[in-house]
Amino acid sequence: MAPLRCLFVLALLLLVELPGDAIAGRGHHGPAAHDYRDALAKSILFFEGQRSGKLPPSQRQTWRRDSGLSDGASAKASVDLVGGYHDAGDNVKFGFPMAFSMTMLAWSVVEFGGLMKSELQHAREAVRWGADYLLKATAHPDTIYVGDATKDHACWERPEDMDTPRTVYKVDPGTPGSDVAAETAAALAAASLVFRKSDPAYASRLLARAKRVFEFADKHRGSYSTGLAADVCPYYCSYSGYQDELLWGAAWLHRATKSPAYLSYIQVNGQVLGADESDNTFGWDNKHAGARILIAKSFLVQRLGSLHEYKGHADTFICSMVPGTPTDQTQYTRGGLLFKLSDSNMQYVTSSAFLLLTYAKYLAFAKQTVSCGGGGGALVTPQRLRAIARKQVDYLLGSNPMGMSYMVGYGARYPRRIHHRASSLPSVAAHPGRIGCSQGFTALYAGGANPNVLVGAVVGGPDMQDKFPDQRNDHEHSEPATYINAPLVGALAYLAHSYGQL
Fold this sequence. Notes:
Blueprint: H1 3-17, H2 21-24, H3 36-49, H4 96-112, H5 120-137, E1 144-146, E2 169-171, H6 178-194, H7 200-219, H8 224-227, H9 229-232, H10 243-257, H11 260-273, H12 288-300, H13 308-319, H14 346-366, E3 370-372, E4 378-380, H15 382-397, H16 421-424, H17 441-444, H18 475-478, H19 482-498
């Protein structure tokens, strides 16, 4: 290849991977509504409060201690399942939502890590902590291990005191789980991109495992909610089925490998796997919208014309969230918060804000807009999408009728009684003696503030009337979760950069 052509190709590749507004340019009018940089640091710090396993010397949420050091020992194969994250306010490491959290945290770094500056290393460490666990959970071929919630929910105790049976369940060829398997493959593939330059050997290991796990997911099709219904429902049932995860997993493997095999898989199976275009919910269970955005990137940025229909699919999803357009289908509270479900609604707020900002990045690169409502519909620019996303993040951080930040430790007023075992009970340092399974329930129903501040935790959020009671036993509104924070990391990195805070 001629030297000048080499330079051109290199420049194009660099441009394709440029983060955030390094492509579109900064440009916001007026001062920032919030300290997005502070919120970014705290949103990543939250993950350290969710850690399970042997904590490292660098642990910054210092009121936490080692926990779950024998996880996996109860499995017949006696697999090492030490590590990973507690999914939410309990002590379960469920697998399915953890894998989605890691996919979204990795995607945050892949798209906006170049903007994170000093927080990039912390974000990478958060991804690695989860990816290491997913490697353990997939160590045996054609097998993925998941946790048990039923017995855990019978107690209210610190992770450090756990004495409930840490029962391990698995999906395998006899009990398929394409949903959890394909999501795990997506997480491993996305994580491989995070470490592709900083730790190529680790990235290669992650990608090799992602390929193997996806092959298992596709070959042995079925939902883990079928074979393990008594154990995973109603906590993390796969209500949307497994088709969305297969498309999502293939999309991530295509992005990580650029292999024609995964492109062909998407082309051949995409229509069947991504069938319901009217489904505009994106979260730990339903990946349709995220897959559309991710695949549309290949058309917009890499110019893969065979995927042109996904630009239309992605536009349909985006238009459903733009107020005032003919195709607007999204409900907002009077205070302006996107509202999907009363249970943990903030997860849809953060995931939607992330998709809006990410799609705006792709559109800006391709110098395209979105037409909402056909030929005579409204033309929606990347700037409009960013404004919608920013409004959601601002609401979350305190620009709302209650004047409350829904991120613990950010701002003057934030939730003090979150639904979280470790936060609600005295730390080991403050109370070295063991607190038994049923003893902890006193704290669940107590009225005082949690003794440990889980900095960075984003709770489920207010109700449809913009009200938030801040009650510990109200898990729908007061429980934090890794899948709420993960996409918010990327959104905050973009906003902090765009307002010159990074």
